[in-house]
Amino acid sequence: MKITLKGSPTSGWYAPPRGTHSGEKHRAVGSGRAGKKKHILGSSPVRNIKPIPAELRGVNKTAAIVTFEDGTKAIFKPASGMTVRVASVEAEVLAYEFSDSIGWGIVPETVEMTVGDEVGSMQQWVPNSQNGWSYRDSLGVDAGTLVRGREYARMQVMDEILRNPDRNPGNYVVDADERMWAIDNEAAFFIRRDMDMESFKLRVQSDISTKVKLASPNRQHYADAYADVVRWSATPAYRNYVSRVRSLKSTNAADRLEYAVGVCRERFGRKYGKE
User: Fold this and answer.
1) Which of 91, 95, 98, 124: disulfide with 185, CB 3.0–4.6 Å?
2) Which class is domain 130-272?
3) Distance separating alpha carbons of residues 192 and 164, to the nearest angstrom
4) What integer pLDDT is reported at residue 221 of this predicted model?
5) Where are the alpha helices (DSSP H) in the chain?
6) Burial of 101 per CB tally in 10 Å (0-12, 13-18, 19+)
7) What are the sequence ranges of the domains in the chain?
8) Helix or strand or coil: residue 172?
9) Helix (H, G, I), strand (E, B) or coil at 260
10) How much is the pTM?
């Protein structure tokens, strides 16, 4: 089976061994180095490809589980199977690159690959994990109240910055260390056809204001995540990321990204703009 890696991601991410996350210190924002990493996907030949089980299948009915010779597993989603109008391989990859660039490491390594004649996104499988629905049901509460609040808040802020409307408990997983991972990010940079720029700006301002006004256990985590965005926006990593987003076919995606980040600077810049 022919497999070709398209593009060259700056880095990769793999879930740390069990027990190493609880003592983690704050990572350098904008360093593009979310812990000790190495590029995983595409570094080993493919062993086999199997259709994804029905219970794990989302909108993309052609998705498959790929196992590499080194034992690494990943989910391959062909572009031809992305039937939802907003879904795209590029958006899936850019969501990973955002998480990596800002230093959060909440999205499994995701790259664009060609398998056979199919171009698609390849996202590393998170071992020993269950989706938010299963996790919530097993404990009788919403995952966001139990999993590390910082990761939940970062995922929500990432979705606001990248305008991903498709986050639900089926689109994140929780691993054996109760670490949360944002998966299925192909709807990032979605803009409704009936939403002009002015309406978009009002929506962004409302979303960002609401999160920090909530009297919830995650309130400080949201404020910290926005502070990370402010610091990241002053780094070369941010400018490089904006350039990457400009390659999207989505109308004004980079302009909308910069506006959302600008709102964060306006709201939190004075307090968090400097270390």
Assistant:
1) 95
2) mainly alpha
3) 11
4) 86
5) 89-102, 132-139, 149-162, 197-213, 219-232, 236-245, 253-272
6) buried
7) 3-124, 130-272
8) strand
9) helix
10) 0.81
Give the span between the Cα atoms of 92 and 129, in whole angstroms. 20
Q: How far is CA 10 from CA 14, 120, 164, 239, in A?
A: 14, 19, 23, 14
At 73, list the tokens. 């597993």
- Per this entry, what is the length of the chain? 275
The pLDDT averaged over each successive group of 10 residues in the chain (275 residues) is: 39 27 35 48 79 65 85 88 69 94 96 86 92 81 62 91 88 89 90 76 83 66 90 96 85 88 86 48
Q: Is 270 helix (H, G, I), strand (E, B) or coil?
A: helix
| pLDDT at residue 117, rounded to an integer | 82
Check if the beta carbon of residue 181 is closer than 8 Å to that of residue 15.
yes
Which residues, 6 or more positions from 235, have their beta carbon under 8 angstroms from its beta carbon? Answer: 29, 30
Angle at 71 between CA 69 and CA 82, to 5 degrees: 90
Residue with the two structure tokens 């400009």? 246
Backbone φ and ψ for 86, nearest 5 degrees, come out as -85, -10
Q: Could you tell me the sign of the dihedral formed by the alpha carbons of 231, 95, 46, 42, in that order?
A: negative
Structure tokens at 50: 């199997």
In three-state secondary structure terms, 236 is: helix
Structure tokens at 152: 């939940």
Q: How far apart are the first and last CA of the chain?
A: 50
Residue 103 has a pLDDT of: 95
pLDDT value at residue 189? 87
